[in-house]
DNA sequence: GCTATAGCAATACAAACGACTTGCGAAATG
DNA sequence: CATTTCGCAAGTCGTTTGTATTGCTATAGC
């Protein structure tokens, strides 16, 4: 047998090159040749790891979702054993806003995929699948807040969760357009959470 | 002189053909030939009215913004002389959600432009310019609500306006992905407005 | 009625695209 | 040491892209 290389590691490297291009010029502006050049490899080598462009796009999307999920997990894990629901929600939200360059890149990539997902059935599945889980998680935190008496009992946890997701997403979208900064966006969500958690 | 045709009317027709394609397949999937075919004209004729593809895209964006602004204006005008701030806000929001097919098409087009705006300086200007005006308008309505005693005095009108814009935008984005329906989205914003306007 | 010109069709063209094929070197196995 | 198979480079293919060019037709003005 000839030499073996770590396929997954190579594919990850290529995916990261794709993100850099998608961030700078958009997903549709990323040709296979561009990605190969950005990754510092030949077109032939890229095609050795991805049989088609579509395969590359799907892999890159799954890869970035994994990384984002892991980042949120780490942040929440750092909160300690018994964190307050408000801190959990604010920590999650903080990870969903383009507060630093890396996160901003992630957002630009996510937006690039979002537009494609609108017209591409397969990608739409990927883009949608994370929402119910996130919504359930947020709703659980709201419910926990109600148990602790920090959230009014007449609030619908499922509705509040959806509101929070949509709100953060909208704030983040305008933040990447420089309509307002990510810090201002964070302040706005924080105010929203203040209201939800009875601090007046 | 030879015969003369109404250039603006032809350009508007071409722009509408572009929207139909952008709605179905995205902006990047719309070639000049596709647009010409959709408009029922030849490529040569299309080029007669738009010297370059970029010129066509910019015109189509400005045209759809004009139409959307006029729709909102009509809806608010139909509210009568002294409408309540809550009704004004809900009416505006209703126009910003993809509740019918025409509105959904408008949203898909807007999304297509949004992604392009992230990477295109000129389009970004167009995409951003409408927000401050809308925010000021919403903030004015919140302030009016405070004067009428319907909104708590410690709410920051500017912040509430930004929250509402971002919230509606996020809800609308997920609505076009079919994560939830536009009707559910409307119900969620309505609940948000209930809270803002002291109905508990 | 001649002419200038707007309107428009048809075609050409270079560039770039994704996909595919071929071929060679290297290395681990037998 | 031979052989097999992976890793990869280079080139080619047909298609599609935006733009440019050419030329015909009809009409308004002189």
TrEMBL record, chains A, B:
Origin: domain of life: Bacteria
One GO molecular-function entry: DNA binding
Keyword Zinc-finger applies: no
Gene3D superfamilies, per database record: Tetracycline Repressor, domain 2
Species: Streptomyces eurocidicus
PROSITE patterns: HTH_TETR_2 (PS50977)
Location of the DNA-binding region in this protein: 31-50
Domain HTH tetR-type: 8-68
Name of the protein in its database record: AcrR family transcriptional regulator
Alphabetically ordered keywords of this record: DNA-binding, Repressor, Transcription, Transcription regulation
């Amino acid at each position: 047998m000839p030499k073996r290389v770590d396929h997954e590691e190579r594919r990850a490297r290529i995916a990261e090159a794709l993100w850099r291009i998608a961030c700078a010029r958009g997903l549709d502006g990323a040709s296979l040749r561009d990605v190969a050049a950005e990754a510092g490899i030949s077109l032939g080598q890229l095609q050795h790891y991805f049989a088609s462009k579509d395969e590359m796009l799907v892999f890159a999307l799954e890869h970035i979702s994994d990384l984002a999920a892991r980042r949120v997990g780490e942040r929440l894990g750092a909160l300690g054993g018994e964190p307050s629901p408000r801190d959990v929600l604010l920590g999650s939200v903080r990870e969903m806003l383009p507060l630093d360059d890396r996160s901003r890149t992630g957002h630009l990539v996510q937006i690039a995929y979002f537009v494609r997902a609108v017209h591409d059935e397969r990608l739409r599945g990927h883009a949608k699948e994370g929402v119910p889980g996130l919504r359930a998680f947020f709703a659980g935190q709201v419910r926990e807040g109600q148990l602790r008496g920090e959230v009014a009992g007449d609030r619908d946890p499922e509705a509040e969760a959806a509101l929070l997701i949509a709100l953060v997403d909208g704030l983040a979208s305008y933040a990447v357009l420089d309509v307002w900064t990510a810090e201002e966006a964070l302040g706005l969500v924080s105010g929203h959470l203040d209201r939800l958690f009875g601090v007046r």
